[in-house]
Amino acid sequence: MQSFNHFALKVCCAACHRATLWLGLALATAGLASCDQEVRNVNLPRIERQLAIYSFISPQDTTLSAWVYETSPLLGPSTRSIMLVPNAMVVLADDTRQLVLPPVRENNAPQPTVYRAAATGLPIVAGRTYRLRVSVPDGRTAEAQCTVPTEAPEFQFRLDTSQFRINANPEGRVVINWQSLSGGTGYYRIAGLFWGEMQIPPNWPFGNGQFSSPVFWNTRSDLFATPTDGGAGRALATEGSFRSNQSFGLGARLLQLDLGLLHVDEPYYRYHQTLGQNINSAGNPFAEPSLVYTNVRGGLGVFGAFNRRRISLRLF
């Protein structure tokens, strides 16, 4: 009987708990209903649009380019279209000279798509610091600076012929090894691109049959950072695979493989690292917020530099 009374007491307590819970929910719902009213004439904080800059420079580039946009406010009207600010003054300079990057229309675009000038007007030299300044007619300005890294280290690569196939969907595997530079933190990025061609019917209206596609690296990222130890360089290695997609058509064959090792500065590294984190967390409600790195004063964006070493391998 004692056990039955204990069970009955538990049932009674559970019932009381449920009644209390439902009563609490009812009261909360009633409270919310009483708060349901239209609010008018609210003074929202005014948020100014900011200039957003995107530019990277390298001693290997033949042109110097910069893209200037405006941010879209969180409160107020917004648009999904991203248009270049057409009337900006963009100046790139070192300690002794400066170069104005004029607006350029690409592919017969109705308005400018990039600010660009020949690199002969301001040679990019390793170890030198450059400043980028952007101003618009309404008085807003944004600026940033970066220092060009030293020459990228030499690297070796090995094409795994056991994984290399030539057929309607050719594919292969490549391994890259290099020694990081000594003395301080080193930031690196690897890049790979292969070129090919496919058989096309006569009078094919979509190009000449040539195509290109990136190498997909097996590591989680194509960015590498070595810790600051001031000692000898560290051995680094990674491998990647490449293949021509079936959408390229039957009869596709690989012609050339381009591999590159970039010695990048910290702004370049941190921007691409945080950008990747931001993209990977998109749509995940449990992901922590990830802000994209910026080194622009008076605005947003990035101005960075890299030094590239490249090897081209003719496959056929």
What does this structure look like?
There is one protein chain. The protein has 316 residues and is of the alpha+beta class. It has 2 domains: 47-149 and 265-306, no CATH class; 155-264, Sandwich (Immunoglobulin-like), CATH 2.60.40. It contains 2 helices and 17 strands. It has helices at 2-34, 266-280, and strands at residues 51-57, 63-70, 89-93, 98-100, 103-104, 114-118, 129-135, 141-147, 155-165, 171-179, 186-197, 210-214, 216-217, 223-226, 235-243, 253-264, 299-314. The strands form 3 sheets. Strands 1, 2, 5, 6, 11, 12, 14, 16 and 17 form a 9-stranded mixed sheet that branches. The longest helix has 33 residues, at 2-34. The N and C termini lie far apart (91 Å). The model is unreliable at 1-34 (pLDDT under 50).
Question: Average pLDDT value?
Answer: 78
Structural class: alpha+beta
Number of helical segments?
Answer: 2
Shape: globular
- The Rg value, from CA coordinates, equals 29 Å
Spans of 5+ residues with little confidence (pLDDT < 50)? Answer: 1-34
Task: Give a concise summary.
This protein is an alpha+beta fold and 316 residues long. It has helices at residues 2-34, 266-280, and strands spanning 51-57, 63-70, 89-93, 98-100, 103-104, 114-118, 129-135, 141-147, 155-165, 171-179, 186-197, 210-214, 216-217, 223-226, 235-243, 253-264, 299-314. The chain folds into 2 domains: 47-149 and 265-306, no CATH class; 155-264, Immunoglobulin-like.
